[in-house]
Amino acid sequence: MSRPALAIGEALVDVIDSPNGSMSRPGGSPANVAIGLARLGVPTELLTALADDTYGELVKAWFEDSGVVVERNSARLDRMSIARAVLDAGGAARYELDIVWTLPAVPPTAIADRPLVHVGSLALFLEPGANEVERIVEHAASTDVPVAVDANIRPSVLTDPASARARFESIAERASVVKLSDEDAAFLYPDVAEHDVVRHLHDLGGATPAARRVVALTLGARGALLRCADGDVRATAPQVRVVDTIGAGDSFMSGMLARLLKYERSAWQKLPTVVDVGRYAARCAAITVGREGADPPRRNEMVAP
């Protein structure tokens, strides 16, 4: 790789309330993906917004421990964003969000020659930063830098499915890799069958032809559906004891991207590649749900090479 991969989006602190007590952990979906990529051996930078408060120092130490570099055009905040996650007895999370998202104008040189630009979650939708994210995606796609997008919908913040769907699709049609969860699909595409959602996203018009797009729909314990130009793939979820589900989708995404980057881009649309990618990503997610918080695996924890 000529330059590190670039993830773009919010970093925050998860304040987790569970039957076992309360704890604070760094998180945020795009930050989790950056951490996951770096831990899997992919040099990664994160373009984000940070504060210099106590929570901000916690997040920065987390980045340093995993090898994520904060991209120099990142924004400065007065206070860190917080996501309060309330866990039920089965480990499922309900979120209450206090998020600030902004970005300065990012020069084209920050995007050039990247092996991948990943965007996702609240950074796609919350102003004033969302418009800058869309501008970055347009530039990346126009210069043939692969774009990856993860919807990661938060219904407590996004109350209008139609406008959220329009914004998501404006990004997804320019992307080479598109991911959403079954919960995202239920919000954005109610009453549409899972296979039909995957086909719709794969066949979106726009700057990136469908023949160069990989789509994944994660289904929790049911695994994931993936689609590429050569056809459909079903990835099975490994059987594990679930501690909590925080960060599982982000680990799937980082595993998916890290594995794709091991292949030439021309192979991304081949069925054997996507079978391997889906399997690897599912293992990453399974490791994450087996421990507390968004704690994606490191490369040496993965059983397969």
Helix content: 25-40%
User: What's the quaternary structure here?
Assistant: single chain
Q: Strand tally, please?
A: 15
Please compute the radius of gyration using only Cα atoms: 17 Å
CATH superfamily: Ribokinase
Model description:
This protein has 305 residues and is an alpha/beta fold. It has a single domain, classed as 3-Layer(aba) Sandwich (UDP-N-acetylmuramoyl-L-alanine:D-glutamate ligase). It is 32% helix and 23% strand. The chain has eight helices and 15 strands. It has helices at 29-39, 54-66, 129-142, 161-172, 182-188, 194-202, 248-260, 271-289; strands at 5-8, 12-18, 21-27, 44-47, 49-51, 69-70, 75-77, 81-87, 93-98, 117-120, 147-150, 177-181, 214-218, 224-228, 231-235. The strands form three sheets. It has a nine-stranded mixed sheet, with helices on both faces. The chain has a four-stranded mixed sheet with strand order 3-2-8-9. α4 (161-172) links the parallel β11 and β12 (177-181). α1 (29-39) packs across α7 (248-260). The mean pLDDT is 91.
Short note summarizing the structure:
One of its GO terms (molecular function) is kinase activity. This protein is 32% helix and 23% strand. It has 305 residues and is α/β, with parallel strands linked by helices.
Which features characterize this protein?
UDP-N-acetylmuramoyl-L-alanine:D-glutamate ligase; four-stranded mixed β-sheet; nine-stranded mixed β-sheet; 8 helices; 305 residues; 15 strands; alpha/beta
What topology emerges from the helices and strands here?
Layout: E1 5-8, E2 12-18, E3 21-27, H1 29-39, E4 44-47, E5 49-51, H2 54-66, E6 69-70, E7 75-77, E8 81-87, E9 93-98, E10 117-120, H3 129-142, E11 147-150, H4 161-172, E12 177-181, H5 182-188, H6 194-202, E13 214-218, E14 224-228, E15 231-235, H7 248-260, H8 271-289
Parallel strand pairs: 1-4, 1-10, 2-8, 4-6, 5-7, 10-11, 11-12, 12-13
Antiparallel strand pairs: 2-3, 8-9, 13-14, 14-15
Helix pairs in contact: 1-7, 7-8
